[in-house]
Amino acid sequence: MANKIAVFRLLVTASTLVCGGTLAAQGVESPAAPFRSGVGDIIVTAQKRQESLQDVPISVTALSGDQLAQRQIRIAEDLVSSVPNLQVNSPLGNGIPVFSLRGVTMSDLGLSQNGPIAVYYDEVYKGNFAIMGLGLFDLERVEVLKGPQGTLYGKNTTGGAINLISRKPGFTTGGYLSAGYGNFNRVTSDGAIEVAADETLGVRIAYTFERADGTIRNLYPDAPDASSTRQYGIRGSLRYRPNEDFDLTIRASTTLQNPYNYGVIAVENENGIGGSIRNMFGLPGDTRAGLGKREIRSPDITRRRLRTYALAANADIRINDDLLLTSITSYDQGRIAFDEDSEGMEVELNLVTYRGKTRQFTQDLRLTSDFDGPLNFILGGYYSVEKIKNDTLLRFFHDMDVNGDGSLNAQDCLDGGGLVACSYYNKFNQKKTSVAVYSDATYDITDQITLRGGLRYTHDKGNLSGFLAQMLGPDGSLIANLIPGSPSDLFATTSRDFKINNVSGKAGIDYRPADDVLLYASYSVGYRGSSFNAQAFFAPDELTTVEPEKLRALEAGFKTEMFDHMVRLNGAIFRYSYINQQTLDVDPTTSIQQLVNLPKARILGAELDLQVRPVSRLTLSAGLGLLDTKVIRGTIQGIDIRGNKLISAPKITLSTSADWNAPIGSWGAAGFRVDLSHTSGQYYDLLNNRGAFEDDFTLVNARVRVHPESDRFGVALWVKNLTNTYYRTNRTDVLAGFDYIYTHVNDPRTYGVTVDVKF
């Protein structure tokens, strides 16, 4: 820990001397406050009120829509380089992000689960992978809130919230269009058009489109390359504001991702991939000899399809000068379907088929006060119902004729001892209902001191029905019912239920010793509801129901501006007590996997954001995240893991950037941006196996955009991963049963040109 403190102090000192900067959205004028020269200001709604970012007493990173474009942030995975202590990996492919924020994340990646980091699109909670879709287009800003959220938000979460806020229709006519081309035959296009019928009715239609060849080369004859891009999204918004007391926005959207699926890079052991099993039947293990770092040899790369539909209505109704009623009503539907070649090789060692369908309805209703006196509050009610249908098929060693009779059938599975030439299938329906009442209040003791507090009551109910797990032969013939385990009815099903009541909350204090200095401290308790084990395949004991997660968080921070707002320095320190984290426990000898609770873990950390604008055309920035995680009590695979690190929790994340706007005579200007991010080593499993560890890595991105004085159009050249850095975004050690390490890798260097026009 001493090394972390030393690094923290060094960055504070160095950043002050060299004029670094925060990663908060910069140069955006506040409509509710005078324009601050220097680093500028931004209005956020992190606390469900329009406030300056510097007045919000929580750790928030905000990025404007312009900054997202400058940084080439097109998918959620790209946010990592701009948010301290944020990690994103995509073990189910790009566009299906699994977030880790300050070491809080999930390890059960079943399609029925909701993560501890809530994602909101225009205040609508998107809990399930199948309804997330493409959110990062035509955005006004992104806000990343760190720590438990529940007294201000419809859904309660332990780790934080990511708010994606799209541009509302205004009451003018105009729009923009951009188009680009890059390596891997990447074609991109984004745009929006806005039309105002009059001063009370506006319509906005926005879209995004992207297509690119695969970044993982497939050397199997006539097979497609893996990890391609093929996606689009369309959003239509209608806004009706007949007067200052009523404002209604209705949004409808659909997205489609249909690329060739990701490629898995198998890191083999001395037996060759699958060798210890294949050798028993006189067959050699497969080998990656002759393959490069981003090459596979697989006949099983097919398209991954993710389709979403969404409809939402957001209404603000001003009851009087002091009270505002807000209603958010939404309906989401999504389907996901794909096949995974889990080793990326010619042998059919481990193939998985995923199918899922999700429907979700939510209603959030809240009352917000705006009194002149010292007391103000938010009081809300939330209801959601989520229905999921899911089925998964696992196929092991499907190309092996175990008994040598010239055919592949159920007998091969039986002769193979239950693994070789066998398939395992499960399916189920799941329904989760959540009802909550939440509140948040502030009381100004003096002009300098404010007390904050909030409470939340949540009632969660879950039902798992029609659960069925079967053992099949390689030809699809039924062999046995494994769950519930009926010896006579191969189609027997079972069910599970839970009901949970929870009370959580937050208390804090703010102190403003000067106009440009805010000090704050808080204690909060977060909650993540119970879950069923969707990855139960082999035995009734696997069908577990885990207790809710709880996280107790202590945090203190500061927000400051200095030297006539030329320097902005924000920081926070925090301590988390992580109780009953939900995690998978896989028995390496039987492959039985249970969803269990890890009794207790501890997280210590700190963050520093610093931004300086020494001259009007130059902004330098830096951001630092420090983490120290430790399991206090827990057992995985029968091994005591006390003292182990949590997953996806690197000790250090560091980012720096420089933005320079250089004039080009009297014609216009050229905007240059370079950013660098560094991530230290991290584990991808709780056992802290070396095979599931990734070393530190550094990424460099750059962009230059030339535009005339009016900025009505521009041409940009950009590059991501300039140094072509190679690292693993996910690793799972399956050496014991399959003789390889399951691995996903990052994208290689990409570059291109983009032309944009405003009208």
Report on the architecture of this protein.
With 759 residues, the chain is mainly beta. It has one domain (2-758): Maltoporin, Chain A (Beta Barrel). Helix content is 5%, strand content 55%. It is built from 5 helices and 43 strands. The strands form 9 sheets. The protein has a 22-stranded antiparallel beta barrel. It has a 5-stranded mixed sheet with strand order 3-8-9-6-7. Strand 30 (567-586) and strand 31 form a beta hairpin. The longest helix is centred in the N-terminal third of the chain and has 17 residues, at 2-18. 49% of the residues are buried.
Number of strands: 43
- What is the CATH topology assignment? Maltoporin, Chain A
Proper CATH architecture: Beta Barrel
Shape: globular
Q: Report how far apart the termini are.
A: 54 Å
Main pleated sheet: 22 strands, antiparallel, barrel
**Range of helix content:** under 10%
Total helix count? 5
Average pLDDT rating: 91
The unreliable regions are 1-37
Structure class: mainly beta
CATH superfamily: TonB-dependent receptor, beta-barrel domain
What would CATH call the class?
Mainly Beta
Cα-based radius of gyration, to the nearest Å: 26 Å
Count of discrete structural domains: 1
| Approximate strand percentage | over 45%
Give the oligomeric state. single chain
